[in-house]
Amino acid sequence: MGKKGKKEQKKVKGAEKTAAKMDKKISKRSKREEEDLAALIAEFQSLDAKKTTVVETACPPPSPRLNASLSAHPDKDELILFGGEFFNGKKTYLYNDLFFYNIKKNTWVKSDIPNPPPRRCAHQAVVVPQAGGQLWLFGGEFASPDGEQFYHYKDLWVLHLSTNTWEQIKVPGAPSGRSGHRMVLSKRQLLVFGGFHESARDFIYYNDVHAFSLDSFTWSRLSPSGTGPSPRSACQMTSTPDGSGVIIYGGYSKVKAKKDVEKGTIHSDMFLLKRDGKEEQEKWLWSRVSPSGSKPPARSGFSLAVGPTGRALLFGGVCDEEEDETLEGDFYNDLYLYDINKHRWFPAQLKGCKSEKKKRRRGKKGGETGEGSGEGQEEEGAAAAQGPVEVIKEIVTEDGTVMTIKEIIPGTQVEEESEEEEEGEEGASAILVEPCARSSAMATVKYGKLYLYGGMFEVGDRQFTLNDLYCLDLHKMDQWEVLVEMDPKTQEWLDDWSDSEDDEEGDEEEAKGGDDEEEESEEESDEQDEEDHPPVQPGEALEDFQSRTEQYWVGQARANMGPEAKDTKVQKVGIAMAKVFYEDQQ
Per the record, where are the segments of Basic residues compositional bias (predicted)? Predict the structure, then answer.
């Protein structure tokens, strides 16, 4: 080997050593961060330990949140809401509160039970009917108040609904700490798939499968044959009706691209994980599924639930478009159903409220239309539906911000029978309003009705977190029912950039007297600011202007956001500032 080859080899080895050292440093730093968060979690747990008795209190609807868990009580007319998170622009709040919603009375009760699981979000909860009803909970994450550090749980808890007691199940072999995973009940096992683990410096996505036996209370890692899904989080995981396996659909993952820029991927593939053989010799097999029908557009952050007659439900979500390190999201409020037995997707079509006369005309002799007939109308009605109508509603929050919400009014069904057409407006579908577009909402099904709670959507750089509750009868498919309306007073957003601008404007107003003088001073200051900023050159395109002045605007963003802000966030804000200035000059 020549000298040149030896030098190249030394360079490669040197680069490998440097990378190994960096990985070691990152690992140590991540470990220290998790230790710091573990200490904070321990403080919260010490406060929870002071609770010695169960206290149940009637209360208003829970505060706005996302990434909580919403489950149907196995025996009572109740829904169970646990945990979640809320971000107000400056601070991240995590919850471990427990609420019960009474379906019949439309009332909420907060239940304070001693020794609950620590605060968390993006966990998974599964209800089983055994022993008077149990709520099993695994994993999730805790975030520092500034949202920069994360702690991922790998603990397993059970809430005994008959005795109102929490119990932590401490057994070896549990999956590694993670959030965004999925967990379902399949026969007498809790199956856990995927998820991710993130620190301030690194992240990893999983595609492993673990099983927890509800009989032996033991964990085991499955080793399925065949080609399964790539690593991902936030997918749809649904048990097959016969309990022989689970369906995995979609999800989200990200990788580090050039210059450590994170690149996200929205998955839209589908897989079947099926068990074969007896319990002693149980084997698992992955296989790819190619569903038919009208597939939902690619998205992440969708809500999922299991409806009657072996159907999986998918609501809402967001599709993030990443271009030149900027992130823009299109939020959805549509509902799709997946028939697991037929491997077929179809969009849900709401029929609207019909008159009594029309119901009798469409009904069978001697009884109502059966459930199977209703399913056919859902699938076939899609082609006969008129286009949806977009309605824009403005809500003024407590801080004066005008929040614009786009809602979709479902189209009316076109009737084929001439007799029904003659009925005119009497037989027409009622105009209905659906939940606004959102992601990371909580969903569950009880008594054939889909319940949807909370979630979030974004307008520009501002995040709106919701606490409304909707209900849809999956047998009738007629209309969404609003059980809890969104309260504008619960909307809080604290933004460093806007706050600093408001403060500066307030100081100027105090220094100047009279409305005319204020306007003149504002105009003069605006002109002065424009003179200070790099000017837009004649005929210069936005991309060229951003590239030429990038360092300046990143510096402005850093001055506004402070030294603790992440470089990636500062760069995004700087690019946005450059765009705003450029457009103002046109």
Answer: 1-10
Torsion, CA 342, CA 270, CA 138, CA 320, rounded to 10 = -120
Query: Would you say the C-alpha torsion 503, 507, 510, 515 has a positive or negative sign?
Result: negative
DSSP 340: T
| Contact yes or no for 450/474 (Cβ under 8 A) | yes
Contact 184, 246 (CB under 8 A): yes
What three-state secondary structure class fits 269? strand
Question: In the β-sheet with 203-213, what is the strand arrangement from edge to edge?
Answer: 182-186, 189-198, 203-213, 219-221
What per-residue confidence (pLDDT) applies to 92? 93
Q: What is 351-371 written as a DSSP string?
A: -----HHHHHHHSPTTSPPPH
Q: What DSSP designation does 179 have?
A: B
Question: What is residue 10's predicted lDDT score, i.e. its pLDDT?
Answer: 53
Please tell me the predicted confidence (pLDDT) of residue 44: 85
pLDDT: which is higher, 359 or 170: 170
Say if pTM beats, i.e. exceeds, 0.90: no
More confidently predicted of 315 and 4: 315
- Quote the strand ranges of 324-423, DSSP E: 326-339, 344-347, 389-396, 402-409
Look at 247-261, 296-310, 486-500, 544-558 and tell me which has the smallest mean pLDDT. Answer: 486-500
Tokens of 564: 């603790």
The candidate with the shortest Cα–Cα distance to 67, out of 96, 38, 106, is 96
Amino acid at position 108, single letter: W
Q: Amino acid identity, residue 130?
A: Q
pLDDT of residue 542: 83
Residue that has been written with the tokens 């072996």 in this structure:
310
Q: Are 375 and 309 in contact (CB under 8 A)?
A: yes
Which residue has better confidence, 356 or 181?
181
Distance CA 333, CA 345 (A): 17
> How far apart are the C-alpha atoms of 326 and 337, rounded to whole Å?
32
Cα separation values, 357 from 248, 349, 477, Å: 43, 22, 18
Instruction: Give the pLDDT confidence score for residue 546 in this predicted structure.
Output: 85
Residues 473, 475, 479, 481: what is their CA dihedral angle, to the nearest 10 degrees?
A: -10
Residues 6+ apart with CB under 8 A from 516: none
Please give the average per-residue pLDDT across 192-199, as a whole number: 93
Distance, CA of 540 to chain centre? 40
DSSP string over 215-257: TT--EEE---BS--PPS-BS-EEEE-TTSSEEEEEEEEEEEE-
pLDDT, position 497 = 46
Of 234, 241, 238, 152, nearest to 191 by C-alpha is: 238
For 333-369, letters b (16+ CB in 10 Å) and e give: bbbbbbbbeeebbbbbbbbbebeeebeeebeeeeeee
Q: pLDDT, tens digit, for every residue of 443-479? A: 999 999 999 999 999 888 889 999 999 999 999 999 9
Angle between helices 496-511 and 515-532 (to 10 degrees): 130
Distance CA 84, CA 82 (A): 7
